[in-house]
TrEMBL record:
Record-annotated K Homology domain positions: 74-147
Source organism per UniProt: Acidianus hospitalis (strain W1)
Pfam family, one: KH_PNO1_2nd
NCBIfam families, per the entry: arCOG04150 (TIGR03665), PRK13763.1-1 (NF010326)
Molecular function in Gene Ontology: RNA binding
PANTHER family: RIBONUCLEASE Y (PTHR12826), RNA-BINDING PROTEIN PNO1 (PTHR12826:SF13)
Alphabetic keyword roster: RNA-binding
Name of the protein this chain belongs to: KH type 1 domain protein
Chloroplast keyword on record: no
Domain of life: Archaea
Keyword Lyase tagged: no
Amino acid sequence: MFISVPDEKINIVKSLISKLKELSGAEITYDENTKTFNVDSSQNPYDAMKVISVIRAIGLGFSVDESLKLLSDDYMLDVIDLKQSVGSNPETLRRIKGRIIGENGKAKKIIQEYTGVSISITDHFVAIIGIYDQVQIARKAIELLIEGKEHSTVYKYLDKAEAELVYLSKNRSYNLK
């Protein structure tokens, strides 16, 4: 499986190859000509997919530490391509990213705090790293902002969704006994 990252992220990923090999057992090589990383999936396709997710996350602007969480079965990467939602008009993309970030980063920060996820916003991608249930809540909140919903509506959704998640997790733990 081949994956590329922006030029400014290549050295970061190259410096991680041995650590990724050690942690995952996957064979990883870098092709200088095509500027792509090759992750051999013949031995263990599942671990290879995890390594691909780590490399992709770094390419999407996440820190190395945040990206390495994707080697755990508990974490996932979800990516929203804003061009698919709102088109490729630069002004529209700028406006939508501004809504997701919020004034002084407030909206992004609130979504992250409510859900415990990490969010990275690049040219036309919004990427989320976190535990599955929290990622789904964060994604829905971001989609509501993309649709043009008021920030207060999104915050109410987050409050309700997190309360439901806490309720469900408590009931699951009781049902397991």
